[in-house]
Amino acid sequence: MNNNHHFKQDLDPQSDNSSDHYQLQPQPQSQRRPRGFAATAASGSASAGRGRKEREKEKERTKLRERHRRAITSRMLAGLRQYGNFPLPARADMNDVLAALAREAGWTVEADGNTYRPSLPPHMAAFPVRSVESPSTCTLRNSLGKASSMEYQPSVLKIDDNLSPTSLDSIVVAERDIAKTESYATGPINSPECLEADQLVRDVHTEEQGGVLTGTPYVPVYVTLATGIINNFCQLVDPESLRQELRRLKSLNVDGVVVDCWWGIVEGWNPQKYIWSGYRDLFNIIREFQLKLQVVMAFHEHGGIDHVVISLPKWVLEIGKDNQDIFFTDRDGRRNTECLSWGVDKVRVLRGRTAIEVYFDMMRSFRTEFDDFFKEGFISGVEIGMGASGELMFPSFSERFGWTYPGIGEFQCYDKYLQKSLRKAAKLRGHSFWARGPDNAGHYNSLPHETGFFRERGDYDSYYGRFFLNWYAQSLIDHADNVLTLANLAFEDTRIIVKIPAVYWWYKTASHAAELTAGYYNPTNQDGYSPLIEVLKKHSVTMKFLCSNLQENQESMADPEGLSWQVLNSAWDRGLTLAGQNAVPFCEREGWMRIVETAKPRNDPDHRHFQFFVYQQPSLLVRTTIWYSDLDSFVKCMHGLDSGEGDQVEQ
Questions:
Q1: pLDDT tens, residue by residue, 477-495
Q2: pTM attached to this predicted model
Q3: What burial class does residue 530 get, using C-beta atoms within 10 Å of its C-beta: 0-12 exposed, 13-18 middle, 19+ buried?
Q4: I need a surface site. Which of 3, 369, 426, 608 has the fewest CB within 10 A?
């Protein structure tokens, strides 16, 4: 007590040296605040304790704020995925959210962060722009004199200090350097100067993208060869032009090529009489260039692209004249001869054989004929054609019957064999009157809201609608299961590939009408791809998904990225091997970069990527030197190389 008394006297020179007076009659109003060293000494020990407590409290408050922020972010991401169909990754950051919101607002966001309105020409958007201005602002500034342009200073984007490091990555600081800005060129658009500038822009953009993708996983690239290289008599057409094409592809460091082996050519004239001579000549030339080979067992017709028509085998068409129900049939009774109906998979209507037996016999013949190529590893994979265009889907979007994008298509289940299957399923369910197709599903070019079946809260979600769509989708899954069971017997120890379509229009509606008619029961309240992926996983096949280079379209409620996100992540999560192919033969560079991002997502924490990519070539009429240059850049991006590496494109 005495020590404390002396300590207080030292600190307070105004003290009357009376401890009783100090304790019993305090006068805080008249005391003067200690100053200088005395004040520091008085508060030192007490403030140290309070400081530690305050820091601990601040840490707890920071943790609570961070948890609260993360909870809000999690709810925002969940809402965007569930109600806005935003294709956000599982561990999305602010870059993904900003990009998704920008695309929803109609902007184009590239893989490297370049953002622009789609009204701008693609080559203008490829510049590494530093300033952000609208066209009207740019026009106003160019109309001013030099002095006035120096005075005109657009506002600069500022960074909030409270933003997280992840958020900072998505902020672009716009730097203005008006004094160095020049007016746009006003020469003719087709002038040599303009063409040189456009090529320069392409080179700059390629260099930027190549730098971003350098060191990413190596994805092999295969290129499809033209259909007309083998004629209907299984003869190789123009071997020298073929060698020239292969030489050019080899100079681009393409890994291999894809060749369609057409059922209508190989077994075209008589059942179980297979002709492979033209394909052997073709394969020998491909092997000369040390390229890998993938083949497609094409059990469908080829309809007039590049003026080449390949029908189903003649003897099958003869059977079809007497029994038209071997083909898919729409509600109006129109027969689609692109491929056989899945209703005859196990029905002996093809000269004593079922459809899957016919497919198996051709696959076994191919495996026996080219046994030497398989043993040396020259043939790296076999794709099994599953339907129209080789894709696993009902032929619901037939242009020969008047379909145009973005029509919803029609159900293709009205041949007598599929109708028999439907009646059996309805009887087992205990509702025989459900053995019918929907009568309010519109026609090929209807829109979902125009129909009673596909509209919001339509019959697609009724008890009958759910029964019918489950049966329809199960028919597709059963077909895949039946064919792949025999394919594994024919091609043991060989990569087997199945091509899955990208039916992305009307994806942002509740019913997903176009997917339903194609055979994928994938409305907003159900995952229609998981059951199929389980079957593909059972057979250890590679799923090749058609990648669209298009963006969201409000008119058709299309969402290609959302569909890709759903299908690819569902397959990857189940351990399925994935590959890709471009859905459109020709597209701009921005579309290619979206495909590269799909093939090997940079934000994927598990570093998953395609096993290979198949590039579908455009027709010979649109191939140019610039096109080959774009393909060269695309291959390098897929290979994880800088765009400047590798050989030059052979002209």
A1: 999 999 999 999 999 999 9
A2: 0.69
A3: middle
A4: 3
